Amino acid sequence: MIRYACQNELLPIIEAALAAHGYHIEVPLQERSNGTGAMVMTYGLTSVLLAQWPDNATLEIEIWGVAQPIVANLLESLPIPLHRQPSPAIVVRKGA
Asked: pLDDT tens digit string along 43-88?
């Protein structure tokens, strides 16, 4: 998984860029009463989760699937302030 963060108001730009490259909305933006929201866009075996957090005006982006590097390159090519986030570590435990 590749993760990014940016300002909430950049959601329409990111959505349009993904749509221009064949991504479609799998799960439309769903906002909750607390102001958080999320949507999922997919293309083939790759999904992009866009999650909004109103308390800090942050949009979190998670890229899942086989085309992660391609989506990362697309996002990084946009003329917007985008901050790559560390991906969570995966711990593998051997059975006893």
From this structure: 999 999 999 977 778 999 999 999 999 999 999 999 999 999 987 7
Q: 12-44 burial, b for 16+ CB within 10 Å, e for fewer?
A: eebbebbeeeebeeeeeeeeeeeeebbbbbbbe
How far is residue 4's CA from residue 50's CA, in Å, rounded to a whole number? 10
Assigned token pair, 31: 């906002």
Neighbours of 1 (CB within 10 A): 12
Grouping H, G, I as helix, E, B as strand and the rest as coil, residue 3 is: strand
Domains within the chain, CATH numbers bracketed: 2-85 (3.30.160.110)
Beta strands in the chain (DSSP E): 2-7, 24-31, 37-43, 46-53, 58-65, 83-85
Between CA 48 and CA 61 the distance in angstroms is: 7
Q: Which two tokens stand for residue 25?
A: 């909305």
What global pTM score does this model have?
0.86
